[in-house]
Amino acid sequence: MSEASGQDGLADEAAAQEAERDAVLVERLKEGDAKALDQLYRRHRGAAYGIAFRLVGSREDALDVVQESFIHVMRGIQAFRGQSSFRTWLYRIVTHAGLDYRRWRSHRRAESLDAETALEPAADGPSHPTPPEEASERDLRRAIDEALANISEKNRAALVLYALEGMSYKEVAEVLGISVGTVMSRIFNARMRLRELLATEIG
Amino acid sequence: MDCDEAKTMLAGYADGELSSLENDALAAHMEQCGRCRQIVHDQQRMQHVFDSYQVPPVEEKDWSDIGNVLKAELEGKGEPVELKTRPRIDGLDPTPEPVAPVASEEAPRPVPIVRQVPAPTARPQAAPAAGRPPAVVPIKVRPRTARQPLRWMAHVAGAAAACLVMTLGLAALWTQAAPPLAPNTLARQGDVAIIELATDADYSVLLYAGDADDVVGIWVEPDGSNG
Prior knowledge:
Chain A is mainly α. Chain A contains nine helices and no strands. In chain A, helix 6 crosses helix 7 and helix 6 packs across helix 8. Chain B contains eight helices and four strands, in the order H-H-H-H-H-H-H-H-E-E-E-E.
């Protein structure tokens, strides 16, 4: 128990040091320092991409969300007062941008669906054979994509953020601006819905 | 603790996010409740499934492309990126304009607008003329309306002064001309001499003058009644 709490203390200390580094870079970015922007981007792009991909379900769209999120950061950095950590602020932006992007994408697909199906015959799947294990993994991923699409935005956002390495309920609560109890409730409901939707695939 | 109460904490129990007190209470409940144990098992399993949902890797070129876009945006080079997303977050404009890069050297839009606004101290009377294109109009109008009555007053005062001077001059001439009339003195009552200025068939004009040639009065009386 004491060993675990000691590890938690070290993790908290490391997180505090990372937050301090971010704060220094943020101040430099406010002065227009391009190197500070580059460092912030390199430090957080992977996590931002992880959130974005789990929200939008496509590599290209996720990269688009990452780019838009960092542009939002640049345009709003002067208004960032450091009341939360930069990481929390960035994840909040990425989460909202990802959900926004998903709505924009679905709206656009709905608009172009009729035109595309009228012009081109429906594809019958990949033209080349696929290894069974790769196919099953792809099927599971597609099933998870579809299941996620059928989970409410709020529950999905909580589940996606908690899936990030090192995120606790408390941090998810800070990113989403809700209580820890609400985070727990949303994650619970998201998993129950996921289990219901994936009952066929995972048994 | 019953199942309804336990249900609110099952996810936290599965993730080890509960306090030790909550954890012990829930553990005690689950020793007797297979249904809640199954839910905790499902929660952990779904988390594993979700964790296995690996995100595809990103090539360095893709990261560099985004980095270049961000740098160009920061330096204000090229067209601002048009965004598809507008996250509603404190500190972010809900409808952000596709401009205003941080510390842009060119600052394409704000600078001309700022420079076009004149310094407020340079125009203390700018408020009445604000929005009116010819700022000189009030300046032309106001002097005219202000100077017009003064000009008339000056004319009137000048004319009055000229009349006064002429009157005094005539009076002075008149009094100086009085001595030649002295021979027409009709009578003398103390210091006052009665001088006949003019006379005709019906009236006589008499001047009553003192020793210092002061005019005491002018009397007009019908002729023949000298009393």
